[in-house]
Amino acid sequence: MGSIGNQVKTVVLLGLLGSLLMLAGRIFGGRTGLFVALIFAILINFGAYWFSDKIVLAMYRAKPADRKNYPSLHKIVEEVAAAANMPKPRVYIIPTEAANAFATGRSPGNAAVACTEGIMKLLTDKELKGVIAHEISHVKNRDVLITTIAATIAMVISYLAQMAQFSAFYGRRDDNNRGSSNIIGLLAFAIITPLVATILQLAISRSREFMADYSGATAIKDAGPLESALSKLDKESVKHRLGFGSPATSSLFIVNPFKGQSLLALFSTHPPVEERVRRLRAMRF
Q1: Residue 284 to residues 218, 223, 224, Cα–Cα distance (Å)
Q2: What CA–CA distance (Å, rounded) separates 221 from 235?
């Protein structure tokens, strides 16, 4: 699936998530509950969106990469940024042997790319270029904005679901006219709705990973480096795991740094590496 296909998939998933929000608002909270939840979620996620680069870089102890110590990394970032027709992002190093990388920033003008010490040792310059191209594509594709929108909607749904649970318990205790079947139905819906919202949110994350793979390979006109890098990183992620950070930010990374903690593929922030490699191999330039 190419760039257009992944864009369409993202729009469809966001549409489903929005529809689920409207349904949850009608059933759980009515207009007042929906409005309060929406304002609350927007404020929280706006702050996260605006300061996301500073928050995530601090969380992973990232330090600015000195050009004298990392000349090849700076050169690669400059080349990829030029190929993507965007400003050069700030460059950071994360002090860990775990091999990984991520990009952050709400726009190309304030973007940052962070690479771990482990990925610098593991990959060749050509493979690292493929990884940087993937990460810079996330910034160019405005994935921070898209994931923030998805997170906002999912948060509102979760808030409304909690309201519904309190309402159901209160009704069961004090409202003798309400049937137990209605209470059970409301509780079931309150549990299932945020679960479905989470699945849709994670599906959006996986779709953007495919798109960044495609966009990154297209920018440097070569899918081979990223294909090779992903295979190496997938194997290395089992040997060295990040000892700090949070699974909540795993979608930022080129491969899931907390791999193995999800019980089902539906709850994974990343598509299977095997599928990503297969799609990259199918690309022709």
Answers
A1: 9, 8, 10
A2: 25
Q: Output the tens digit of pLDDT for each of the chain's 285 residues.
A: 555 554 555 555 555 666 666 566 656 555 665 666 667 666 666 766 677 788 889 989 999 999 999 999 999 999 999 999 999 999 999 999 999 999 988 788 889 999 999 999 999 999 999 999 999 999 998 887 777 677 667 766 766 766 666 665 555 444 454 445 566 666 666 677 777 777 777 888 888 999 999 999 999 999 999 999 999 999 998 888 787 777 777 888 999 887 754 445 567 889 999 999 999 999 987
What domain count does the chain have? 1
- Of 79, 117, 135, 209, the active-site residue reads 135
Residue with tokens 């110590």: 69
Q: Does residue 135 have an active-site annotation? A: yes
Host domain of residue 199: 3-281
Encoded tokens for 115: 């690479």
